[in-house]
From TrEMBL:
It comes from Devosia lucknowensis. It is an enzyme of class 4 (lyase). Keywords: Cytoplasm, Decarboxylase, Lyase, Polyamine biosynthesis, Pyridoxal phosphate, Spermidine biosynthesis. It is found in: Cytoplasm. It catalyses: carboxyspermidine + H(+) = spermidine + CO2; carboxynorspermidine + H(+) = norspermidine + CO2. GO terms for cellular component: cytoplasm. InterPro entries: Ala_racemase/Decarboxylase_C, De-COase2_C, Nsp_de-COase, PLP-binding_barrel. This is Carboxynorspermidine/carboxyspermidine decarboxylase. Its EC number is 4.1.1.96. The lineage of its organism: Bacteria, Pseudomonadati, Pseudomonadota, Alphaproteobacteria, Hyphomicrobiales.
Length: 366
């Protein structure tokens, strides 16, 4: 019997294809790769992912603990700001602590004297298509930007974290960015043991020059005598997962609108945040529909797609690329039933690994 929709369907074979690329990059570059849990934290896949990566990085205490508990390897602790109430636990669960400002470093680094300590530095350059996600936007709080303050803290840190990329699928753009960083802070990089270059490099994309990226990372590591880390999120899971939905109703109102048993804001929030369209395959044929969610938000629209046959009530639709920044952001808006999580194994069987019900909805509020 097919699983009831809605559910996220993670494909092990597709994930394996991306992980082979992670492995190739690690081997060719010497860089260590940590999964960024803020993008994807569906831990039932960690047994498959962990052998291909060096550990996890986090943006909060909870992600940090999840990485420690469910994923082998190194656990990096980073947060935009640690609170007094969480810093001791954070340090207890981490292999490296990275502070976002010199003020946080001064406040808490004494507690982490037994660990390598890092500082997030903001070199003031970035590759990002969206102001919302641009770490170098004006007045950015993401990383220490004041060179004087960074210099004064150099003897207290062994590494920097520099996260300046978002959806960068060009080796030459990445390389040029790194050139600028080297010019601006190369003298400081010389004094470090390790540098994390963050996430946002889309190296699993078809046709991406992995060897070119590896060579650039290797020359950076050699020039400054540092261990390089990358913190990929999206690129590890891109094109591995679909959101499986069913058509509930079809409304004709100038356009044919198919309403499905999901909601963009609740289950694929980034489409709204970044004003993007979802995707289906093959997206071809003479029958065009707007695919819309069942929440009462007027703009709850996944996109407009072409289908080979007219849609009928009960038809299933697979919305593509539903792994990164989806399950970590899903919510109970409108009380819409939360998609289950299923994994299609390499042998073709599909396992339901988590489902949610009314009790979970009730438990999320009080
Ligand atoms: C968001 C983020 C990542 C992961 O970025 P992706 O675009 O998903 O690869 C890694 N490191 C830091 C510091 C981040 O903020």
């Amino acid at each position: 019997m097919p699983l009831a929709t809605p559910y996220y369907l993670i494909d092990e074979t597709a994930l394996a294809r991306n992980l082979e690329k992670v492995e190739r990059l690690r081997a060719a570059s010497g860089a260590k790769c940590l999964l960024a849990l803020k993008c994807f934290a569906t831990w039932s896949t960690f047994p498959q992912i962990a052998p291909y990566m060096d550990g996890t990085t986090s943006s909060s205490l909870y992600e940090l603990k999840l990485g420690r508990e469910k994923f082998a390897g190194e656990t990096h602790a980073y947060s935009v700001a640690w609170s007094d109430g969480e810093i001791d636990e954070a340090i207890a669960h981490s292999d490296k602590v990275i502070f976002n400002s010199v003020a946080q470093l001064e406040r808490f680094a004494g507690k982490a004297a037994h660990l390598p300590v890092g500082l997030r530095v903001n070199p003031g350059v970035s590759h990002s298509h969206f102001d919302l996600a641009d770490p170098a936007r004006p007045f950015s709080r993401l990383g220490e930007s004041d060179r004087g303050r960074v210099e004064a803290a150099m003897d207290r840190v062994s590494g920097f974290m520099l996260h300046c990329n978002c959806e960068n699928d060009s080796v030459s753009a990445f390389s040029a960015l790194l050139d600028t960083i080297e010019e601006r802070i190369g003298d400081l990089l010389m004094r470090l043991d390790w540098v994390s270059l963050g996430g946002g490099i889309h190296f699993t994309k078809n046709g991406y020059d992995i060897d070119g990226l590896a060579a650039r990372l290797k020359s950076f590591a050699t020039k400054f005598g540092v261990q390089v880390y990358l913190e990929p999120g999206d690129t590890v899971v891109t094109d591995t997962t679909t959101l499986e939905v069913s058509v509930l109703d079809i409304v004709e109102n100038g356009k044919s609108v198919a309403i499905v048993d999901s909601a963009v804001e609740a289950h694929m929030l980034d489409l709204l945040v970044y004003r993007e369209s979802g995707a289906v395959a093959p997206n071809a044929g003479p029958h065009r529909y707007q695919i819309a969610g069942k929440s009462c938000l007027a703009g709850d629209v996944f996109g407009e797609f072409d289908f080979p046959q007219p849609l009928a009530i009960g038809d299933r639709i697979s919305l593509l690329n539903a792994a990164g920044y989806t399950m970590v952001k899903k919510n109970w808006f409108n009380g819409v039933a939360m998609p289950a999580i299923a994994i299609r194994r390499k042998n073709g069987t599909t396992d339901l690994v988590r489902s949610f019900d009314y009790a979970d909805y009730v438990a999320s509020l009080s």
